[in-house]
Structures are given as structure tokens and as C-alpha cells.
Fold each of these.
Amino acid sequence: MGQEEFVFLLIGLKWTVLLSAVGFVCGGVAGLGVALARASGIPLLERLTAGYIAVFQGTPLLMQLFVVYYGLALVGLMLDAWVAVAIGLTLHASAYLGEIWRGSIEAVPRGQTEAAKALSLRYLSRMKDVILPQALRISLPATIGFLVQLIKGTSLASIVGFTELTRAGNIISNQIFQPLTVFGVVGILYFLMCCPLTILGARLERRFAASAR
């Protein structure tokens, strides 16, 4: 594998990073709304968001990307592959992050909520100033773990013809007939992205566990 092939892999790596960032950030914004709805105490909102989470956690990401790209095309909504994958990853991430953060919100000691109510804080103020800062701290290890899974999940974008890192490796492999070398490099690039995050998540989990004793 020569320099040109490696540069092509780096271009694919760039799109993998961008897809991961878009899916995580946009999914995080939507996921916060899902988490707040799940913890709102309003039965209708809780049931709707529980169904939303069940759909996206109960179906493969590959199928979700397929439905967004090809399914919407069947009803006349043609999306660029980049847009379709970004939407699919955002929906996927919002369901998982929403459930992670819902669990973290409920893990905050109930006394914190009662104290905030005693101070006459409204729902939004209670969440913004009291509950969410603590919930964010609790959720960090699981959130980072999900980000690692999301990075690896971008490899499924190839189903709609989008050229990210894995598809770039497949294209090069078909050209130079060195699959072990090419995908060895691809694997190393994924490892360099995911391993530091995995280590960070493990360290945060140990730190929070020690502080909770």
C-alpha cells in the first residue's frame, strides 16, 4: 500500500470523525430532550419517548440507515448520502443517550429534587441548576462508551454508498488486492480513535466509584 492509498484512507478517516461528531452532538441535543421527557412525570410524554427508545434500541443501526436513505426516497424525499447517514446516526444516538441520561437523572439522590422544590425552583431551574450537572457527571463513563460504539457504527454508512474509513479501505483493497494490509491499517486507525476514549471512560468510572465510597 502506497502513499496515495494511505491518503485516501485518511480522507475516509476525516469523514468518519465528522459523522461521529455530527451524530454525537445532534443526537446529544435531541437525547437531552428525550431524557427530560422520560423523567418529566407526564405519562403521555414518558410513554411516547419510551416507545421511541424501544424502536431505536430494538432495531439494528444498519436497518435504520437503510430506512432513512432508501425508505424516504420511496416517498419522494431524496437525501444526499451524507445527510441521510447524519440523520440516521442522530436518531440512533438520541435514543441511546436519552436513556443513558434518563438513568443518570434518576440516579441523582431524590433529596436534591426535594431541596430544590423547597427553594421554590421551577422545573427548568431545578434541572438546569441542580439535577443535570450531577446527572452529567454520573453519565460521563456511559456516554463516552456510547461515543466509542458510535464511531465504530459509522462503518455501516457504506450501505448507502458513503465513503468513510471502512468503505475507503474496501475500495483500496479491491484495487491493490492486499486486504490484510489495508484492513490492518484501517483497524489501527479505528483503534487510535477509540482506545483513548475507552481508557478515559474507564478512568472516570473508577474515579466516580472511589468518590462515591
Note: The mean pLDDT is 89.
Amino acid sequence: MNHLMIDLETMGNKPNAPIVSIGAVFFDPSTGELSADFYRVVSLKSSVDGGAIPDPDTIMWWMKQSEPARMAICDEDAISISAALIKLNTFILDNTDIDNVQVWGNGATFDNVILRASYERELVPCLWKFWNDRDVRTIVELGRSLGFNPRRDIPFEGDMHNALADARHQAKYVSAIWQKLIMAQQIN
């Protein structure tokens, strides 16, 4: 599989936001099949020490989230941001051809942008080609243009705002929209 859905949990919403967890899952949008997955909790301190800047409004937002969501980013086994990025690179290399991997994030200015900025700050190479970045929100809008929005109709499994659970959910609804778009194309 060469489609990789990534979800980040962060303490901000700008490119310099500190990452506190990374979730990723390979998927095939034409079938909806999910494959290998990745999850690491990242030390907030390591992200800030590397130059990321927390946002007070995002911190306040996190304080209002469910206890399971908050506890998931406070894992005692959290690793440094540089270690998490290296492990993510290894996960990608172990599971696909790096020249063909398409990396999906939720928003043209969020997951992939924050992740790339973290790679740059940590001096760890971001392995996939920038032209292989994909945006979940764009495909959701395309689905809506067809009168189809499975984003809310597909049951969420796991704890919301857990990076891996969010990545799995996003992969499922992107696949549903993808399949609907392909069917619409075949009809026309």
C-alpha cells in the first residue's frame, strides 16, 4: 500500500506547533483496507526544546477534552520528537516504496505542514516527496459536492483525539469518498 494517513496531536495549530503524538496507518482507498499502523507519544518537553512553540488556546482546548484523550498524550513512555520522527521514517521505509508513498493529513496547513516543520527543526530528513502530500479536507469537500459525507456516518472506533484512532477513522472515510468518486466517474 502506498497511501499513508497521518494524524498528529499537537499543542498548537501553526507550523511551529509542538507534536505530542503521531498516529499513522497505511490504507488502500479503493478498497478501504487498513494495513500496518504506527503510534508514538512524543514528549512535549522535547518538542518545545527543539523550538516548537505551544499555543495557550490549544492547551486550554486540550484541558476540556476527555480524560482518555488527555492521558494518551501524558504517557510515561513518551519519546523525544527526534526519535519519533526517525521511527516514523523507519516505519514508512519498512512498509512501502518511499518514491510512491502518498501522505495524507487533515488540512492543507495542518498535519503534513507541522510534521515537515518538525523534521526540519530536528534535522531529520522528511523522506516523502512534497508533491505526494494529500489533503483529507479537500477530498471531504469533493464528496460533499456529490451529496456524500461519510465523515460523520462512519462510526468512530477508539478514543477521539487519539492520533492513531483519528488516522484510522480518516482513512475509512477518505476511502468511502474515494470509492464514491470512482463510481461517479465510471457512471459518467
Note: The radius of gyration is 16 Å.
Amino acid sequence: MTGSPEPAPDAPGPPVVGRGRLGRWRDQAVALGWLVAVWSLLWGDVNWANLIGGLLVGAAVLVFFPLPEVSFGGRLRPWALLVFAGRFAVELVSASLHVARIAVQPGYRPRGAIIAVRLRVSTDLNLALTAEAVSLVPGTLILEVDRNSGTLYLHVLDTHGPGDLDVARERTLTVERRIIRAVGATTELRHLDVAAPEKGNRP
């Protein structure tokens, strides 16, 4: 009597189906959420019309203009996400008031500067999120992104000396830190802790 043959010890198991698809759906959902947030910020008001319009526009962008796949290996941390949103709102209002004061101050000509800020986590997702968050704050503008070195090149408005440049550089690294704490992976959080003594260094 012969039994069924036993599988070889090194034989691969059955392929797991659906795991990759689930990951792609999750990445698309995260991208859509950020597009809706950016759409609402551009309109300057959060209401049902802007949210629905952002969903439609974001979905159209993802369908007709697909972006390169950017893996999301982190996890959402609600409290850290609320902290990021709250601090971002405060900085948005403060920077808007500062730019408005410059605009109405008679005879004042602000000086601008271009600085390079090398991020501690150089993934495509972190580069995109940090660059978007920094650009949305009045007075700062992303001019270029170097993927190879993970460096952002920013134009900063109203600078008076090297101290202001250091403040702008540290502010960008702080935004990156809040984003990683809100949606980053555990390994990225550890990398932030290791790179903390180097913060503010010029690339």
C-alpha cells in the first residue's frame, strides 16, 4: 500500500494571493487622502463641497496620471497625526500673518535665500510629504528635490542672517520628524533617534 508522496522539505509553499493587492490599495488610499487634504488647503476651507471635489479630483489624478509606486511601510498613529495637524495649522496661520505684514509694510524689501536641507529619512514618500508640507506654509517654496541624497532645496523669504537660515533648516527637519512620527515605520523612528545629534547640519 503506497501513501501519497510527502512534499520535499525545500518545496515552496503556496503563493500568497491578495497581499500585494491589499498593499497597493492601501497606498492608493493614503495618496488619495493627501490629495484631498492638499485640495482643501488650496481652497482655504474645509467643507463637504471641497471634500467631495477633492475626492473626485484626486481619484481622477490617480486614474489618469498614475504616479510611480511608492510603498507605504509605516503605520498611522492617530495622536501623532493630530499633533502634526495642530502644529501645522498654527504655523500656517503664523506664517500667513508674517507674509501679510511684509506685504503691507511700506518701503520694506525682504531678502530671500536658498538653502539645502538633507532629510534624515530619504524615502520617496517622506521626501514628497515633507516637501508638500513645507511648500504649503507661506514664505517657503521648494525649488528642487534631490532623490539620490534626500535633499530639499528651499527658497526662504525674509532672512536677515545665518541665524534665520539655521531656523528655517531646523523647521524643515522638525516637519520631517512630525511626519515620521505620524506615519513612519518603526525603523524610520529609530533612524531619527540615531540622527538626532546631527540635526541642523548643512548638507
Note: The chain is about 55% helix and 10% strand.
Amino acid sequence: MSRSALLVLADGRFPAGGHAHSGGAEAAVRAGRIKDAADLERFCRGRLHTTGLTAAALAAAAALGHDPAALDAAADARTPSPALRAAARRLGRQLMRAARTAWPAAELDALARAFPRGAHQPVVLGTAARAAGLGPEDAAHCAAYETVSGPATAAVRLLGLDPFQATAVLARLAPDTDDVAARATAAARGGVDALPAASAPLLDITAEQHAAWPVRLFAS
């Protein structure tokens, strides 16, 4: 296991396309649910313990070597919003390009062939972590961290929020992020049928609304 590989995979500058997505923050800002750092922290904590837990468990399961086709089907079943399913596959496709360049591996090649239009991003993330020599806990931490870092970065652009405050939000959420990663990894060890299906219905609803906006800053 390489700590440096984990840093590369979790780095916001890794060209996986996440910078174009707000994780629901843009719609929440438009609706007035995120106005400041305190609102952002509440939004991120809710997202982390719902969709974040689900994504982290899928990533951990992929890193453990569970059947990626079964995991992709599980991700589909846990993503009721067509807009979010499309976004997850776009992100998976972009992450696949970056991961295959960084860590060439037969498993990544096979996943790319099986899903030419893109597998769900957490499944690709876990497979990439495995190719990089990382374990399920690392994959779960990456997925959980992305769940909150994306909205935090987006809020800086959407609200002109002080980036120091946004970073402080992520720091305060660190214990929750660790907890979610640990729970996700434990669930993943039980197999596909044991994966959590925590959801955030409001995120699904607002994702569909956001997809219909004629003008928006973020893709999702």
C-alpha cells in the first residue's frame, strides 16, 4: 500500500472531472438552503451520512474485488435520479481515463470494456484504488471525502465564500468522514447484498430540477 498513491487519488487536482460538479450545492444555494459556512457544514454532513456512505461502501467493495458488474447494478438501484445516474457515469468515464494512465491494470481495462459509456464513479474509484495498491479503507476514505469536498469547493465559487471557512468546514467534518469510511468498509466486507442504501431524496429531486436549468455553473 502506498500512502503517496492515496494522496494522488484523493487530490482535488487529479483530472477526474469532479471540479465541474457541485454535489447538489448549486441547487441548494439557489433554493436558499446554503447561505454561509454553517449551512454548508449542515449540508455536507447530511450528504456524507447518506449518499456519501453509500458511495464509500461501493468504492470499498470494488477495492475488495467484488464483481464490478454487480456493484454497478447496485449503484444504479441506489441512484433513483436519472440526472445523477448520468452524472455518476460521466464522472466514472473521466476517472477511468485518468486512472488507466496513472495505474495501468488489467482490471481497469476490463471495466472500461464492460462499460464503454462509463461505470458508476464509486465503482471505478474502488477499482482504481485496487490498481494503485490501495485497500478498501483507502477507497472508502476517498469516496467519503469527495462527498464533502466537492460541495465545499463549489460553495466558494457560488457564494464567494471565504475559502478558509470552507476548509474549516472540511476539518470539522473529519471525524464524521472517518466514521463513514469505517462503516462503509465494514459493510463492504459483507458482500454486495450487505451494502448500505442510504439516500437523500431532496438531492434526487433537486438534481432533476438542476438538470433542466437553461443556465448553470456546474454540470450537477
Note: The mean pLDDT is 96.
